Amino acid sequence: MIRACQPLRGALSVRFSSEASTQIVVILRIFRFFRKPALVVGSLLLLVLIPSILIGGLRFIQIQWFYQPAAPERSVEKARYLESIPAVDPAQAPSFVVILFDDLGWGDLSSYGNRLIRTPAIDTLADQGVRLTDFYAASPVCTPSRAALLTGRFPIRSGTHQHVYFAEGTAGATVRKMLGIGNEFAHDEIVLPEILGAAGYATGMVGKWHLGSAPGYMPNDYGFDSFYGVLHSNDMQPLHIYRNGEIEVRDTTPRQSFGAYRHEDMVEHSGEVDQSTLTTRYTQEAIRFLEANRERPFLLYLAHTAPHVPHFPDRDFAGQSEGGRYGDVVEDLDRSTGAIAEALDRLGLSDNTLLIVTSDNGADYTGSSGPLRGRKGSNYEGGQRVPLIARWPGHIPAGTTRAGLSMNFDLFPTLVALAGLPLPDDREIDGADMMPMLTGRSDHAHDILYYMPTVGSKPAGARDTSFKYIRSSGDPGRDRPHLTRLDADAEAHDLHEKHPDAAARLQAALDAFDHRLETNPRGWN
């Protein structure tokens, strides 16, 4: 019996050994596979990427064929308000010129301490009016900052708080839409030229828009009677020059993949668009607007492309600035500003025109933040604190410097009040009238200012007259809340332990403001 079973035992043994060997081989192969991190990571990436690509492709098709901007929420209220605007008296109403530079830093003007770049024309305006040392852009990048200036509201109110817009049809614009953050300015926002235009003002824009480039979302669709300029930054494609809604000068350069120039591809000529002539073109168009509208009140919004990269100075003056190529570009802007001021004088308009010169955000990497910490894109002071000079003979004391807290969304209620017009009451206006501060009747337009991040709706920090509190220092490995004394320090030292009451006070104000934005981001009343 035992002998009879031996063959069976042998067969079972062989079978067992074969199965065991196979299992061991499989286990060893799996083990070896997981000992190769590249294979593991690659396999996991495939598992994630393939569905993502499929979903992204479907989303891309949806965007290309079916995308619609967000529907306006307050169109009826906006129309009712604009219809209620009374006509101004042309003989009494003041005119306004707002000159906005692109990425000009706090320390780029000689009147703000620059010792390499000469800006005598702008310095003269400071001597004739007021220079502010604590004036801020509402965002450290341009699209949300420009929206705030024109609406009097924080960027989140208009949905422009997620970085910058891209030209329609480019990958950048498509990605924004795929992420659900849009690429156009909300039509239910009430914009400064719409109010002044309803009151009888001539409204003209020259320069860079950067609040949308799709049909229906250009400057003429937001109250500007005339527009000459470009629709986005001068490192984005296509850089067509528009007159109202039509292309007047076409950019024919080859398109880059994301709709933005690589630095090595930045050329002086974008097809027929010669960037070295943009500042001169804008200046000439602005003066034509002044000449054409000298007999009526007007708003001129001159939003320069420069000194944003790429830098192409006027050939007639290139190489003259001690500040290098960037200095050449800023000195071009100074000559432009001088020409605008001279035109106002020549046309007899200066005494009845408030002239404002400022920047949309802090300095880029080639500009100067002066003594401030940080640059464009940062919630440190260099990212948002910018120059502002205001001249209005007989109304603003000449040769004054003020340290009052104010922000670019204050220009909206200031100009509306000077025109004698009511503000809309169906929405929160975050700005305040600056004239009491500009004339010395008050110290500040605000007791507390709030800083908004480049991307996101959560406010990043707050400051009062002395202290500044930010939620995150942004320093890799040492990211933490930061309290500093702006009246004595360039945001270098954290003073939480030294001044706990100031930190608690500003943190509480920041949390309360954050709650307001969370519960009512559009600011509807």
What labels would you give this structure?
alpha/beta; single chain; 2 domains; 17 strands; Arylsulfatase, C-terminal domain; 14% strand; Alkaline Phosphatase, subunit A; 525 residues; 35% helix; four-stranded antiparallel beta sheet
Summarize the structure.
The chain has 525 residues and is of the alpha/beta class.
Characterization of the model:
- The chain is of the alpha/beta class.
- It folds into two domains: 94-254 and 268-446, Alkaline Phosphatase, subunit A (3-Layer(aba) Sandwich), CATH 3.40.720; 458-525, Arylsulfatase, C-terminal domain (2-Layer Sandwich).
- 35% of the residues lie in helices and 14% in strands.
- The strands form three sheets. Strands 1, 2, 3, 4, 5, 6, 9, 10, 11, 12 and 13 form an eleven-stranded mixed sheet that branches. It has a four-stranded antiparallel sheet with strand order 14-15-16-17, with helices on one face.
- Strand 15 and strand 16 (467-470) form a beta hairpin.
- Helix 4 packs across helix 10 (324-346) and helix 9 (278-292) runs parallel beside helix 10 (324-346).
- The longest helix is centred in the N-terminal third of the chain and has 33 residues, at 2-34.
- The radius of gyration is 29 Å and the shape is globular.
- The termini are far apart.
